[in-house]
């Protein structure tokens, strides 16, 4: 099974502008269209509770949204069987569950805490990163403050607008 981590970032590695949660206020239209397309094509979409609360995810029979939280009971009323699920499983347990069900792909859409917990356990196979030609100085990075040592290999790079937004894909080199 392939686990893909997707983010949009600035040149200085920020995935939030000065810490504010609305990414669509600064990401390019090209990235927003691309992200929408990737979400539409993905069956299994994993995120943390903060990312779920910061955006709007439309439930659909075509996707299963899995929201990671220590308090799944808090979200009981939002659950839709087969479409929106809240879980306190660890990243390792989640991946094992979906491997055993025969899934081929999982898309991890963030945020930084969830991304880091998957990266730490070496569960990410590819990083799909849109790089916006912007510098914010402050804001969150997609990997939070722990020591990681992950090497990747560029497998795709496309300039998608005049300003130079780059859509990139990297494969994680497994040790
Ligand atoms: N630029 C981008 O591409 C992009 C993408 C996604 C998100 N974002 C931004 O990132 C921000 C949210 O990121 P975030 O890092 O604060 O939150 P997050 O990763 O979305 O969610 C973290 C929360 O998930 C829960 N959780 C459950 N299991 C966990 C585990 N194993 N490890 C860590 N957390 C776990 C915890 O909340 P409970 O109290 O519920 O347990 C934790 O506070 C938002 O501002 C969003 O807009 C940007």
UniProtKB/TrEMBL annotation:
<dbReference type="Pfam" id="PF01872">
    <property type="entry name" value="RibD_C"/>
</dbReference>
<dbReference type="InterPro" id="IPR002734">
    <property type="entry name" value="RibDG_C"/>
</dbReference>
<protein>
    <recommendedName>
        <fullName>Bacterial bifunctional deaminase-reductase C-terminal domain-containing protein</fullName>
    </recommendedName>
</protein>
<dbReference type="GO" id="GO:0008703">
    <property type="term" value="F:5-amino-6-(5-phosphoribosylamino)uracil reductase activity"/>
</dbReference>
<dbReference type="InterPro" id="IPR024072">
    <property type="entry name" value="DHFR-like_dom_sf"/>
</dbReference>
<dbReference type="InterPro" id="IPR050765">
    <property type="entry name" value="Riboflavin_Biosynth_HTPR"/>
</dbReference>
<feature type="domain" description="Bacterial bifunctional deaminase-reductase C-terminal">
    <location>
        <begin position="4"/>
        <end position="162"/>
    </location>
</feature>
<dbReference type="GO" id="GO:0009231">
    <property type="term" value="P:riboflavin biosynthetic process"/>
</dbReference>
